[in-house]
Amino acid sequence: MSDAENRRPLTSRNSAWAARLASWAVTREITPNQISQASMGFAAAGFLLYALSTQGDGVSQFLCLILAAATVQARLVCNLIDGMVAIEGGKGAKDGPFWNEAPDRVSDLFFLAAAGLAAGRPDIGLLAAVLAIATAYIRELGRAEGFPPDFSGPLAKPQRMAVLTAGTVLAAFYASEWTLTVTLWIIVGGTAVTVIRRSMTLINSLKSR
Predict the structure, then answer these.
(1) C-alpha span between 106 and 42 (Å, rounded)
(2) How far apart are the two ends of the chain, measured CA to CA in Å?
(3) With pLDDT > 90 as the criterion, what percentage of the chain qualifies?
(4) Which one of 28, 99, 119, 125 has the minimum C-beta count within 10 Å?
């Protein structure tokens, strides 16, 4: 199965801004692995910002949450550009598959656990993180069995991060702990459905092989 066939289908990959950013990275000899590693840096920054949002009131809390939402989106941009640089830019490395996957799991844990801390519900944040990692595990298990990667939702990574971004921005303006708690429950519910859906698809594929 080729790298192109293993890619998550994203309409943003065809956008002009993504092409320009990928081209910029290629011309400056920034490697896909470095971009993937940068995504963990944004996740670590997001963790810190969520944590700091609990320490202040008013303007400081607002700024921390807005910046945390920005780091979520920056992580997604890294996830988009690293593949474009690797495939369209021809800069893929032998250890690329590791750096394509491992930073995503770290980032999921950082962001969702941190949102749980900011909500005053670390248990829900960790549950969301566990479920997010489980979706990737089932997808990769399917690939190991020779099936096409299953990127189905309802809350695959892009959708989870969209919900987290929207909830974090809303929390900056209104009832941060309550808003983030509701956001995390939405992520837990949607991601649990995603885990079940991918599991059933894989089980049925194995049985029919």
Answers:
(1) 11
(2) 17
(3) 85
(4) 28
Q: Which are the contacts of 55, defined by CB distance < 8 A and separation ≥ 6? A: none
Structure tokens at 79: 């996830």
Rounded Cα distance, 134 and 121, in Å? 20
Closest CA to 141 of 76, 77, 195, 208: 195
C-alpha pair distances (Å), 165 with each of 35, 68, 102: 21, 8, 22
**How many beta carbons lie within 10 A of that of residue 172, not counting itself?**
19
* Dihedral of alpha carbons 101, 118, 164, 122, sign: positive
- What long-range pairs does 40-45 form, CB within 8 A, spacing at least 24? 40/103, 40/106, 40/107, 40/110, 42/71, 42/72, 42/74, 42/75, 42/78, 42/107, 43/71, 43/75, 43/103, 43/106, 43/107, 43/110, 43/111, 44/110, 45/71
Q: Is the pLDDT of residue 3 over 70?
A: no
Domains of the chain from N-terminus onward: 11-208 (1.20.120.1760)
Amino acid identity, residue 199? S
pTM strictly above 0.90:
yes
